[in-house]
Amino acid sequence: MQVAVKLSGVSRHFEEVRAVDEVDLEIAEGEFFAMLGPSGSGKTTCLRMIAGFDHPSSGEISLFGQSVVGVPPYRRNVNTVFQDYALFPHLDVAANVAYGLMIRGVDKATRMRQAEEALSLVRLSGYGKRKPSQLSGGQRQRVALARALVNKPRILLLDEPLGALDLKLREQMQEELKELQRSLGITFVFVTHDQGEALSMADRIAIFNLGKLVQTGTPTEIYHHPRNLFVADFVGSSNILPASLASKLNGRESPASLRPEAIRIVGEGGHPATVLGQSFLGATRRLTVEMDGTRLNVLLPNQVDTPPVGAEIRIAWDNESLHPLEEV
Ligand code: ATP
Q1: What range(s) does the ABC transporter domain occupy (predicted)?
Q2: Are the C-beta atoms of residues 161 and 189 closer than 8 Å to each other?
């Protein structure tokens, strides 16, 4: 599999701020790749450098094996979909989509045909004559996508493209984006601060914190084997056991993560714990318990009889569910 995007020792400093700090990263052709991290962790800066809107202070970026140092954005075979869509309000949808082709000198008949093809990819056939103001948020989002796809990029960069949509529409667009990526086979690089979105959509995820790439892996790897405290805390809903408690349980002098769904209530054996609270979540029920001074969340299927608040119970888990974490 060819490497579509490669970052080697890439840093970007804005005076004393290390927005991106020594990042090494490879994205394979055809991957749906998510960059995930809290606000200010350097994701957008990374994406802008891949697009060519910004440049590394040091390190190198190559696309399909070719260094892109000094190559302007329009010659990179890359297109970007921005969070605010950046549509031209005075142009109709077809003209918005065809804009990049017009700049490149493509004749009008070809432009209109290709714009219509791109609009049909995003299920907006027949909307060409509308103005952006006559569309819903989700439809504008699709126009922005069509405008990027019309240029037939090999890599599509998406910066929080669903951030402006409400939850239901967001979930629908997640499915659509995934399907579109699968059918086109284009490499998608997707920036988000929403861990659920990254886990559900991406083939692989890179987790950023404070400008550094902390961990790269498939959603399953990241979810089940978080490398350090930050990842365990940021992705999913792990219980974090302090080093003092974890060392009693597994003999290692480091904190550990334990997924709420890995904990079961047992009749005997296990570890004593007290039920502090419980909440009904629909298909599951969440108990909060205290064990050796540490609060833990326990996720139980709803059919299971749950002990009342204040009950003294015993809890257990399989040893492999307890993952030691690096502290950094
Ligand atoms: P968000 O999710 O909020 O977009 P992000 O992870 O994409 O965050 P970046 O936008 O890449 O983060 O910013 C990383 C850091 O670099 C932040 O501390 C930000 O303030 C700083 N930064 C980004 N662009 C500039 C700039 N042009 N000048 C100065 N500092 C900048």
Answers
A1: 5-235
A2: no
Q: Tell me which amino acid residue 193 is.
A: H
**C-alpha dist (Å) from residue 16 to 12, 13, 19, 211:** 10, 7, 9, 12
How many C-beta atoms surround the C-beta of residue 325 within 10 A? 24
User: pTM, whole model, 2 decimals?
Assistant: 0.86
Question: All domains of the chain, ordered by start, with CATH?
Answer: 3-232 (3.40.50.300), 248-324 (2.40.50.140)
pLDDT of residue 161: 85
Q: Is the pLDDT of residue 110 over 80?
A: yes
Going 266 to 270 to 275 to 281, the CA torsion angle's sign is negative
Atom 30 of ligand 1, nearest CA residue: 14
Taking only the tens place, the pLDDT of each residue in 213-244 is: 999 999 999 988 889 989 988 987 789 898 88
Query: Which helix (DSSP H) or strand (DSSP E) does residue 195 occupy?
Result: helix 195-201
- 17, 84, 193, best to mutate for ligand 1 pocket (most atoms within 8 Å of CB): 17
- DSSP secondary structure, 91-117, as one string: S-HHHHHHHHHHHTT--HHHHHHHHHH
